[in-house]
Amino acid sequence: MPSRTSARSAKAVRAAGKSSPSRKPGKGNMPGKKREVPWALLGGAVAIVALIGLLAYSLVPKYLDQAAIREAQTDLKEWVPSQENQDPSTKIDGVVKQEYPAGLHVSETQRVAYDKAPAFGGPHDSAWANCTGTVYTKPIRMENAVHSLEHGAVWITYNPDEVDAAGVEKLSNYVKGRQYSMMSPYPGLDSPIALQTWGHQLKLDSADDARIKQFISALRENPYAYPEVGASCSNPIFDANNPPPFDPSPYGPEAVPMDGDGLTPDLSEMGGAGIPGMPSIPVPGGLPSGQ
């Protein structure tokens, strides 16, 4: 039998356990207020993320577009003309060359019996097509375009039935905002793409062809390859949105022949005469009487 002393001790221990205070709770066990969700802060964060996404969506494509244009419009040094290498295009496979008389003007109602399609030399309208990096969405009259070539421009044409939207965009990168450049559709073109400068032409199948950049580097504003050196490409009276229309119909007997028979050469356009960059701007149809 347990002793009385032992029984008393056990009872004392149980009593002490019941009456002793509980352990001091730690911070993690302290009762606290219910945590509130910082909706305003979260809303602000979401708005910032959305704004960043919107800016990226808006600016990144523009940045990439500008980068593509800069790359397209950077001339290839090995194809840039010099005194020692006046016509680098002679090394480009497929380039067709032809000598043409310069400074032969027709009126806005006359047609020229061009020997090439698109034409790249010969008699032309006294008003040139604006070629300050102009991307025409409509076909333009060849007589105006050829005058732009006489000023040193490169003219990119494409068959709208054979070049898709991506190809048109890629071609336009060579032209957008670049002086002495222009581009337009050419219905019925016998190749998907054709590039023209005065006396030079290159026909291609793809907008990815490396020869496009070679041709432009070699011949755009090449002072050894076009007649009217120093002439401007700006012609504000030539409406880019509504240019004189391209006429695809066959030439009639009244068309001006390629040799310009019956035309008087404009000597001011021979050999780059006049003030560089500041020629007069011919108005289609001529000036009113007495001006």
From TrEMBL:
Keywords: Membrane, Transmembrane, Transmembrane helix. Pfam families: DUF3105. This is DUF3105 domain-containing protein. InterPro entries: DUF3105. The keyword Transmembrane applies. Residues 242-251 have a biased composition (Pro residues). The chain crosses the membrane at residues 39-60. Residues 1-32, 241-291 are annotated as: Disordered. It comes from Nocardia rhizosphaerae. It comes from the Bacteria.
